[in-house]
Amino acid sequence: QVQLVESGGGSVQAGGSLRLSCAASGRTFSNYVMGWFRQAPGKDREFVGRIGVSTPYYASSLKGRFTISRDNDKNTVYLQMNSLKPEDTAVYFCAARPLGLGLAVRPVDYDLWGQGTQVTVSS
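Predicted structure:
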């Protein structure tokens, strides 16, 4: 079983950058697809991107500004967010599911979730 803890959230002005981290406990981190989602107040949880063995996949609207990477030696997945906009304000969650078939872009595709970290972008 993998447990997830996000960090790195905070407040930033529009145009700024943040890097979120998601640290996973457990010895099978490399066997999991790691996803990032976000949820703004009053909105559904939204897919940001995910990374399997090595190749990330992004929501088309975010590609180019957000970058996902993972370090299996550190059991950590990262979300680098650049050129942030006020509409990026949300609670950001990391999630995990075992490697397998499928794009894994829906919240229901994931078994394990972190507690979330708040990102606030001011104009």
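Summary: The chain has a mean pLDDT of 94.
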